[in-house]
From TrEMBL:
UniProt family annotation: Belongs to the ABC transporter superfamily.
Protein keywords: Amino-acid transport, ATP-binding, Cell membrane, Membrane, Nucleotide-binding, Transport
Residues covered by the ABC transporter domain: 2-236
Main location: membrane
Protein name: Peptide ABC transporter ATP-binding protein
Domain of life: Bacteria
Pfam family, any one: ABC_tran
GO molecular function, one term: ATP binding
Length: 240
């Protein structure tokens, strides 16, 4: 589904991503871990072209999306992204937040989009909040709405950048549960997280990123059970 070939990203003189190769299969759940500043967010943002890669190639469903002539918006519509901070529109209701992109960008019929939105709200357990405003929701609820909003575009892959890092601890579980059920339904997902228990349980593959490269990767058993690199062991020693 995604094929990354020698991806680099510079900010000014600094090379932040130093040549990343990665293949992600349909339905795979890939979890990206690593120290702060290692380039995890930059990598996710390059995947959906929120950042323009400096060099290298990204293919998405066979299309070379890093090609100059490729319409970036086409790829973005098929890649849902959920951030640490929920970025809901504060002056729009939950329903309006969810409907915005399908109706404006995908030109979906409003009644149909609304029906789909209700199904998504059910999926995240928040049907009752459809007319609420973001300020009336808890952090965990906002993040679940942000997930529903991303799903409303019917993405083929979901990218998550530390979706639970800004939440009070008691709300982390409800968001992880939604992500877990998405994974079980076969959604292709790339997740940056510090929730190692979740990574171990839900991830098909764990990537350890350090200094702008994928230093080591493997199944959860391999990576958590017998990390090969000193730096991976060091990192896991601090977070586990
Ligand atoms: P992580 O998500 O692993 O913590 P990031 O991808 O956010 O790491 O950042 C990697 C490095 O790139 C950091 O040193 C950060 O300061 C730098 N960086 C990220 N975004 C920018 C930017 N827009 N301009 C300049 N430097 C940036
Ligand atoms: Mg980050």
């Amino acid at each position: 589904m995604i094929n990354v070939n020698q991806l680099t990203k510079n900010f000014g003189q600094l090379q932040i991503l130093k040549g990343i190769d990665l293949e992600i299969g349909k339905g795979e759940v890939v979890v990206l871990i690593g120290p702060s500043g290692s380039g995890k967010s930059t990598f996710l943002r390059c995947l959906n072209l929120l950042e323009v890669p400096t060099s290298g190639e990204i293919r998405f469903e066979g299309q070379l999306i890093t090609d100059k002539n490729y319409d970036i918006n086409k790829a973005r519509e098929k890649m849902g992204m959920v951030f640490q901070h929920f970025n809901l529109f504060p002056h729009k209701s939950v329903m309006e937040n969810i409907l915005l992109a399908p109706v404006k960008v995908k030109k979906k019929n409003k009644a149909e989009a609304e029906q789909h939105a209700m199904e998504l709200l059910k999926t995240v357990g928040l049907e009752a909040k459809k007319d609420a405003y973001p300020s009336q929701l808890s952090g965990g609820q906002k993040q679940r709405i942000a997930i529903a909003r991303a799903l409303a575009m019917e993405p083929h892959v979901m990218l998550f950048d530390e979706p639970t890092s800004a939440l009070d601890p008691e709300m982390v579980g409800e968001v992880l549960d939604v992500m877990k059920s998405l994974a079980e339904k076969g959604m292709t997902m790339v997740i940056v997280t510090h929730e190692m228990g979740f990574a171990r349980e839900v991830g098909d593959r764990i990537l350890f990123m350090d200094g702008g490269v994928i230093l080591e990767q493997g199944s959860p058993e391999e990576l958590f059970g017998s990390p090969k690199q000193e730096r991976t062991r060091d990192f896991l020693g601090k977070v586990l």
